[in-house]
Design goal:
There is one protein chain. By secondary structure, the protein is of the alpha/beta class. It folds into two domains: about 1-65, Ubiquitin-like (UB roll) (Roll), CATH 3.10.20.80; about 70-150, Translation Initiation Factor IF3, CATH 3.30.110. It has helices spanning about 15-25, 45-65, 80-95, 115-130, 155-200, and strands spanning about 1-5, 10-15, 30-35, 40-45, 70-75, 100-105, 135-140, 145-150. It starts with a strand and ends with a helix.
Length: about 200
């Protein structure tokens, strides 16, 4: 087999018995890393440490993985302006967070004969939030509803990275402010002590 040392150095082609002996002498494990190679490749390593580090890397990767969430917002075709602004505010918040938004227009009774009302409303909403999102799925009639999906212009991973950076900055600024307050308190204390000493001397 071809043997690789613990630091990635090439030991060369050796017999299995010799590789096992080297592993024992080094107090390491002999791990086959490329069984399909000719000859097979094995490496001297601390297998327990290797498994632990691999698990930590996988955990870190999962932590940083961004999951896109589809939020849903429901509107009526004859929604008043105040309610529209409120709903639009929610859509803006979702898109800023990097989430997709499924917009559903719900038709009732005679409203079903006026699908153009829902279409115009969806177009207006898409235009109003065009800086933050784009139409990923055009308006489609689905029974009594009309559905459109908006996608965020910024990726979820980018938003999360920015939020982490902001938290770190705020934490750093808070630490600096705390240190400055401590230093100011210490200076004030020194001045007070000097004043007391001077007053005692005059007395």
């Amino acid at each position: 087999m071809r043997l690789v040392g613990p630091n990635g150095e090439q030991v060369g082609i050796v017999r299995i018995e010799d590789a096992l002996r080297l592993a024992q002498e080094s107090d390491l494990d002999l791990v086959e890393v490329a069984p399909m190679a000719r000859p097979p490749v094995a490496k001297l390593m601390d297998y327990g440490k290797f498994k632990y580090e691999s698990a930590m890397k996988d955990r870190e990767a999962r932590k940083n993985q961004a999951h896109t969430i589809i939020k849903e917002m429901k509107l009526r075709p004859k929604i008043d302006q105040h309610d529209y602004e409120t709903k639009k505010g929610h859509v803006v918040r979702f898109l800023k967070a990097g989430d997709k938004v499924k917009i559903t227009i719900m038709f009732r009774g005679r409203e079903q004969s006026r699908p153009e009302l829902g279409f115009r409303l969806l177009q207006k909403l898409a235009e109003d939030v065009s800086e933050l999102g784009f139409v990923e799925s055009s308006p489609k009639q689905d029974g009594r509803n009309m559905v459109m999906v908006l996608g965020p212009t910024r990726r979820k991973a980018d938003v999360m990275a920015e939020q982490r950076a902001e938290r770190e900055t705020r934490k750093h600024d808070a630490d600096v402010d705390h240190a400055a307050v401590g230093a100011e308190a210490a200076t004030t204390s020194d001045v007070d002590e000097s004043a007391e000493t001077a007053e005692s001397t005059q007395t």
